[in-house]
Amino acid sequence: LYLQEPSNKRVRPLARVTSLANLISPVRNGAVRRFGQTIQSFALRSDSKSPGCSQKSCSRSAAPTPPKRRNSVLWSEMLDVNMKESLSTKEIKRQEAIYEMSRGEQDLIEDLKLARKAYHDPMLKLSIMSEEELTHIFGDLDSYIPLHEDLLASLGEATKPDGTVEQIGPILVKWLPRLHAYKGYCSNQLAAKALLDQKKQDRRVQDFLQRCLESPFSRKLDLWSFLDIPRSRLVKYPLLLKEILRHTPKDHPDTQILEEAISIIQGVLSDINLKKGESECQYYIDKLEYLDEKQKDPRIEGSKALLCHGELKNKNGHKLYVFLFQDILVLTRPVTRNERQAYQVYRQPIPVQELLLEDLQDGDVKMGGSFRGAFGNSDKAKNIFRVRFQDPSPGQSHTLQANDVFHKQQWVNCIRTAIAPFQPTAASAELKDLPELSEESEENNPSVPNIQTLKRQSAMSGVTEMELDESISECGSTLDSEENKGVKTHRTWSGHRKTREKQLSGKRKETLV
Fold first, then answer.
1. Sign of the CA dihedral 442, 445, 449, 454?
2. What residues contact residue 250 under an 8 Å CB cut-off, 6+ apart?
3. Cα 3 to Cα 6: distance, rounded to the nearest angstrom
4. Helical segments of 287-355, H only
5. What is the pLDDT of residues 207-230, one digit of tens each?
6. N or C: which end of the chain has fewer CB within 10 A?
7. Vertex 28: Cα angle to 26 and 30 (nearest 5)
8. How far apart are CA 309 and CA 478, in angstroms?
9. Can you give the pTM of this predicted structure?
10. Contact 85, 69 (CB under 8 A)
C-alpha cells in the first residue's frame, strides 16, 4: 500500500491589514492592547500564506479564537478567614451587592473605551465610515466615561481598608440625577441602529466587523452590543439598588436614603423612556410616504407616542407594517428608497375614535365569495382580527393576521386600550342586522366607493382597562425595543380584565366605539 501523510495545515485567507495594527496607540487597557496584537497576527498570517496553495484549501477557515472572559470574583472570596467570620451573613450579602455595582461600573468604563479604540477610531482612520456616520452611530459615548469614573472613584473613597462600605446611599442620591445625560443617547438609538444595519451592507464594513467579532477582545459581542451596553446598564440600576436595600438592616442609616435613591432612578428612567418614545414616534412618522393628500392627517404629525407597531399580513397574505399611534391607526407597505427603509401608507388611516375592532375566531372567517380561504392552503385562518371605520361611508375593512396567538392578543389588547376612552357609557344592547363590509381593494388607492349604511341599535360596552406591563428591567415598553418572533410590539396599557363579548351571527365578536 502507498500511504501518504495527510496535511492538517490550515491557512486563513486574510487580506493585508497591517495599517490597522499601527492605528492603535499604546494604551494600558488590556483588551485594547490585545486588539492590536490580534491585528498584527492577522498581518503575519497573511504574509506567510503560501502562494501555491489551492483556492479550495485557502478558503478553509481556522478554528475560532476562544473569547476572552471577564473574571467573576465574589467579594467574599477576597476576604481572609478571620474577616469573613466577623461579619454576619446579611452583611456579607450587602457588601456583595455593593461590590457588584462597583465592578459593573468598572466593566462599563472598559467597554466604552474599547468601543472607541477598537471600532470608532480604526474605522475613521481607514475611511471605512465617514466621521458624520460614526458620530451618528456612536453619539457622544465618550462623554459618559467621566460620569461613571466619578461614581467608581466615590465608591473607592467610601471603601474601608478591610474592603467594606459603610454607607452608599448618600453617594447614589448625589450621583443618580446625572444619568439624565443619557436622554439624547437613548433617543438616538433607533436611528443609529438603522444606519449601522445599512452600513453593514458595505463589504468593507462587514469585513472589519467580522474580524473584530472573531477576535478575543470582543468576547463574541458585535458592535451593537457594545453600543447598547449603556442602555442595558441603566435598567439594571433599580435592581442593584433594591438588592442592596434588601440586605440592609432596617435600622441602618442607609435604608431610608436607598429608598430615596430608588425613587430617583425610577424617575430618571421614566423621563428617558418618555423622551425615547417621542423620538421613536417621530422617526417612523418621518419615514411615512403618502400616495394621496387625503391620507395625510394632522393626528399623525401631532403624535407623541407609538402604542404598538409591527408586521401583520392582510387577507391575501401580503405583508403590511402597522402603526398604532395614540390617536390614529396607520397601515403601510414597507418599501426601500435609495437603500433606506420607508413605509408607504396603505389606504386611509383610521382615527381611534372612529375605529371598530372585530376579534375573529380561528377558522371562523366568513367574508363571503372568493374571500373564503383567502389565507391559502385551504387551512383555516388563525390569529386574525379585523379593523374598520365605525362609520361605513369610507367603506374600509382590513382583516389582519398575526404570527401567533400571543401577538394577536397584544394587538387586540393594545387597540382596545386606545379606543376605550371613546366607548359610550350607556349600557350596551345586542347588535342587530350588522352587515359585512366588503374587504379593501388591493390597489393602493385611498378612495373607496360608499357601502350600505351600517345599522346598529346601540354601542357595545365591555372594553375595560388592561394590565400595565411594568418592567423597569426593560426601561419601559419603548426603551427596550426588541424583536419578538419577528413581530415587534410596544405596549403602554394599564389594568386588565377579560372582556366579555356577546356572540353575534356568524360567531363574530364586535367591539364598537
1. positive
2. none
3. 9
4. 298-301
5. 999 999 998 888 888 999 999 999
6. N
7. 100
8. 11
9. 0.64
10. no
